[in-house]
Amino acid sequence: MINETDFALMVSEDIKNKCDDTTKDLLRSKEIRDRWRDTLIRIIKNVTDRLEKLEAEAALLRAKYKDFDHDPAGSIASTIEKSQRFKFHAEKRLAEADRLIFLNEETPDSKLSSFLKDAILMHKKLKLQYKRPVDPADVGLWDAADGKWSF
Fold it and tell me: Which of 25, 36, 68, 116 falls between 20 and 30 A from 142, CA-CA?
């Protein structure tokens, strides 16, 4: 299992659209969705707290140096803008996670595995229904549909 720090980094990279497709699929898998959602909530809270501190710091600088020609909190304003953009994208990911959890949707990989399992079970049903000979490969497929490897 991935530790919390590494998992949060994966989620952060996903928010920034910098992770690969395998990581995206992993985060959206049914087994990980709740953890993904919880991590997104923590990230959003951390960014919100950071934004509040940055905005207070910028306001303090502007009040202290109001006679400056240029914004004394210019670099902080840039950081605030980047943090707001990151928070926006994190909130979009949270909405996606909520939707996937609520609708209990499957990822393309899990759809394929469900399709293949259904095909194997139909194969078994037809073999038995029409009393066709069963060979070791058939038994191996049927066991695989039940999560057992017997080839």
Answer: 25
Instruction: Examine residue 24 and state whether it is found in any structural domain, yes or no.
Output: yes
Residues 78 and 116 in one domain: no
Q: With contact defined as beta carbons under 8 Å apart, do 90 and 44 qualify?
A: yes
Residue 122's domain spans which residues? 110-145
Longest Cα separation, the chain: 92
Q: How far is CA 40 from CA 27, 29, 80, 95, 100, in A?
A: 11, 15, 19, 10, 14
Same domain? 81 vs 123: no
How many Å apart are CA 150 and CA 134, to the nearest integer? 14
Any domain includes 151: no
Residue 150, domain member (yes or no) = no
Instruction: Report yes or no: 87 and 44 within 8 Å, Cβ to Cβ.
Output: yes
